[in-house]
Amino acid sequence: MTLPLNANDPCAVIEADRAHVWHHLIQHKPFETVDPKIIVEGKGLRVWDIAGKEHIDGVSGGVWTVNVGYGRERIADAVRDQLVKLNFFAGAQGSIPGARFAEALVAKMPGMSRVYYANSGSEANEKGFKMIRQIAHKRHGGRKNKILYRERDYHGTTIACLSAGGQEERNMQYGPMTPAFVPVPHCLEYRAQWDLSGEEYGQRAADAIEEVILREGPDTVGGLCLEPVTAGGGVIPPPPGYWPRVQEICRKYDVLLMIDEVVCGVGRTGTWFGYQNYGIEPDIVTMAKGVASGYAAISCCVTTEAVFEMFKDDPDDPLNYFRDISTFGGCTAGPAAALENMAIIEEEGLLENTVAMGERVIANLEALSDKHAVIGDVRGKGLFCGAELVADRATKEPMDEGRVKAVVADCMQQGVIIGCTNRSVPGFNNTLCLSPPLIATADDIDAITGAIDGALSRVMA
Ligand code: PLP
């Protein structure tokens, strides 16, 4: 018989983890000799590991999630109160927090109107893809079913999401992929594909989308799914001129514009949603991580009323309702937490703080690039920033992955957790990622970039 785990015995916890947990996003061999890191507590933007060491969290829970920071009792209280009242009811029935959060959410998204609840970013994106496919069946005899996605974007872990994923290194082990997902070129000017710059570059990158639509046949392309700012694929904010042209192209060819706000959504870029930085009017918006800052599992697929109406006009036609469910979309903890999360962002002025602190991150990284020639490019939007490391600034030869990882590990030694793009194709596996909770202060930002300064000095010595 297995004895109950003694949570107060760090060695027992580490051994239980080592013996039984299959961690996300990591090759396990090193855990045979190195202890897995166990995080036990968080407050504000600091977390403590099982050895009692304090860390500044520069990545919001590892994956851009804990936007309002740790230890928010009012969220925990709201969730508890809701769970003891009604924890769950799924299917056609609604709930009070579900209705209230949907109303609060669309109030932040002019033009959007309907909220479909699910649990993860991948799942929200699956909902969006299914809506686009169903609209193709309903309005175009099934023909306008192709969905375009962009190189370097990521939309989740299911096979359909990977089929829409522009990071080959995440997909290649899992083929065959779902048909009718078609790539368009990435828009990172630093790794330029056209000999242009600024607005002209942005327009050219968007024109490449039109070229794909024309090549595939406009009557076969039903949707375009993009991240507002590419996240794990290299922290890539779009160049100026990109988004207006993308919108124009979608309207011209009657292509539904689906924006994946799983990372950018709910404040990360300094606006409620990343697309709002660029004046876009999407048809479908998905979101997950920051919606409840990790206090509960919730994701949303939000649509315009026009999209919703397409699923409603003739009740006798099976193509006229969305035959879909997410069982745990009926868990009330999600919207209860999300309502408090949104209130905190508003009451504490976290959007404004994100803009100011994001500018500070960029300024600090640019100052570091005067000192460290290995910083090839600095980019970001709000508290979602990246520093691309290169072996040679002139040729832009990417820094090797081992050194990039050594910089991250050195920061961890210093008690600062940062991230990097991971196991990627050359040219995209070399970007340090910074995305602290939106409550970060100037001192926190300086501590994070100061750690990078020290790490670069040591790793490059
Ligand atoms: N979309 C983007 C942009 C993401 O970065 C992620 C996850 O990192 C997802 C979708 C998938 O979200 P989840 O892991 O919740 O399924």
UniProtKB/TrEMBL annotation:
<protein>
    <submittedName>
        <fullName>Taurine-pyruvate aminotransferase</fullName>
    </submittedName>
</protein>
<dbReference type="InterPro" id="IPR015421">
    <property type="entry name" value="PyrdxlP-dep_Trfase_major"/>
</dbReference>
<keyword id="KW-0663">Pyridoxal phosphate</keyword>
<comment type="similarity">
    <text>Belongs to the class-III pyridoxal-phosphate-dependent aminotransferase family.</text>
</comment>
<dbReference type="Pfam" id="PF00202">
    <property type="entry name" value="Aminotran_3"/>
</dbReference>
<dbReference type="GO" id="GO:0030170">
    <property type="term" value="F:pyridoxal phosphate binding"/>
</dbReference>
<dbReference type="InterPro" id="IPR015424">
    <property type="entry name" value="PyrdxlP-dep_Trfase"/>
</dbReference>
<dbReference type="InterPro" id="IPR049704">
    <property type="entry name" value="Aminotrans_3_PPA_site"/>
</dbReference>
<dbReference type="InterPro" id="IPR005814">
    <property type="entry name" value="Aminotrans_3"/>
</dbReference>
<dbReference type="InterPro" id="IPR015422">
    <property type="entry name" value="PyrdxlP-dep_Trfase_small"/>
</dbReference>
<keyword id="KW-0808">Transferase</keyword>
<keyword id="KW-0670">Pyruvate</keyword>
<keyword id="KW-0032">Aminotransferase</keyword>
<dbReference type="GO" id="GO:0008483">
    <property type="term" value="F:transaminase activity"/>
</dbReference>
